[in-house]
Design a protein that fits this description.
- The structure is a single chain.
- This protein has helices at 38-48, 114-121, 137-152, 188-204, 231-240, 261-264, 337-359, and strands spanning 5-6, 11-16, 22-28, 71-75, 77-78, 81-82, 87-92, 157-165, 168-169, 210-217, 245-250, 268-271, 274-277, 285-286, 289-290, 295-301, 311-317, 320-326.
- By secondary structure, the protein is of the alpha+beta class.
- It has a five-stranded antiparallel β-sheet with strand order 1-2-3-7-4, covered by helices on one side. The chain has a five-stranded antiparallel β-sheet with strand order 9-8-10-16-11.
- The longest helix is centred in the C-terminal third of the chain and has 23 residues, at 337-359.
- The radius of gyration is 21 Å and the shape is globular.
Length: 364
């Protein structure tokens, strides 16, 4: 299997499966001397881990699987600093219920990668989806925490939140509220409505999707490559590589299609001798390079495909396909939004850290 590595200079390679011994990441290209705070890596993992609570509240949207997700650094760090060598981090699985997947040996779950894995490789790890499981993102979050340590040196912050879930959209924006409710939404009232709707869907055996928004602050102008490796195209690839993401936009995104040049252009003026943009329709990126504005992106999250309702599907026996019915068992999320928030933050941080390191070679 190829395609397990992301990045050019700051390179991230993930490994492991949902129901294997564990999973992890190898980070290459981390600058030597960078202070590595294990507590920050663990804090990032705790935001994503199954069974986690936000401000003492456990969301109705998340799986009952409860993993400690303890980060073990195997190499690349000495006396709290990066050695400049590959940093290997492993996260062991402790709460697998592989027997829950016994009815999927020959049957393909609708909405999952079961069928495509079978067609590509001829067989598959049916226990929780193997490499296609959302659990793979734990390794990304660990790498993203290290990337954020690089960004901290430049005063760059990455913050994501649930903008919409289960059809309910936030009407207010209070950044403090993001870590006050279990949906990680910037509107506590909307978060409560999301939770109520998700609880209703759980009782029905259904699931829901939503929208994650992310803002990257402090990126200086000129970060990114102007042709194939545009900053926005790298962010798009990074965010779209998250399994549940089915849509991506920067700035006004698809709304720009209904706008006009006189409106969509971000006009500029000089203030205290420095260039300033009057608006941010471009989402902080022009010509594939950062323009100094906040970088604003959004990701559309599909409903969780594992639902507790009978579904029509197919199975394969003796090399032949046939129709069947499937009732999925096990422990599954109802809405992925609160757990995908830290994954979006991680992938955004990895991209910006990689581009910052690349930018050091752009001029003398």
């Amino acid at each position: 299997m190829s395609g397990n590595t992301f990045g050019s200079i700051f390179r991230v390679t993930t490994f492991g499966e949902s129901h294997g011994v564990g999973l992890g990441v190898v980070i290459d290209g981390c600058p030597a001397g960078l202070s590595i705070d294990v507590d920050k890596i663990q804090a990032a993992l705790d935001k994503r881990r199954p069974g986690a609570a936000v401000n003492g509240q456990k969301s109705a949207s998340v799986t009952a699987r409860n993993e400690p997700d303890r980060a073990e650094i195997l190499s690349g760090v000495f006396e709290g600093k990066a050695e400049g060598t590959p940093i290997a981090i492993v996260i062991r699985n402790t709460s697998q219920h592989s027997s829950d997947y016994g009815n999927l040996v020959n049957t393909f779950r609708p909405g999952h990668a079961d069928f495509t894995f079978d067609q590509k490789y001829g067989f598959r790890d049916y226990r929780g989806g193997g490499r296609a499981s959302g659990r793979e993102t734990a390794a990304r979050v660990a790498a993203g925490a290290v990337a954020q340590m690089i960004l901290d040196h430049f005063g760059i912050t990455v913050k994501a939140w649930t903008k919409k879930a289960a059809g309910i959209e936030c009407k207010e924006f209070d950044e403090r509220a993001i870590e006050e409710n279990s949906m990680r939404a910037p509107d506590n009232e909307a978060a409560a409505q999301m939770e109520a709707k998700i609880q209703e869907l759980r009782h029905k055996g259904e699931s829901a999707g939503g929208i994650i928004e992310c803002r990257i602050r402090g990126v200086p102008a000129g970060i990114g490559e102007p042709v194939f490796d545009k900053l926005d195209s790298e962010l798009a690839k990074a965010i779209m590589s998250i399994g549940a993401v089915k849509g991506f936009e920067i700035g006004d995104g698809f709304a720009a299609a209904d706008s006009f040049g006189s409106v969509n252009n971000d006009k500029m003026h000089v203030e205290n001798g420095k260039p300033v943009f009057d608006s941010n329709h471009a989402g902080g990126i022009l010509g594939g390079m950062s323009n100094g504005n906040d970088i604003v992106l959004r990701a559309a999250i599909k409903p969780v495909p594992s639902i507790y309702l009978d579904q029509k599907t197919i199975k394969k026996e003796d090399g032949k396909f046939m129709d069947t019915q499937l009732a999925i068992k096990g422990r599954h999320d109802i809405c992925l939004c609160p757990r995908i928030v830290p994954v979006v933050e991680a992938m955004a941080a990895i991209v910006v850290a990689d581009m910052l390191l690349r930018n050091r070679s752009s001029k003398i």
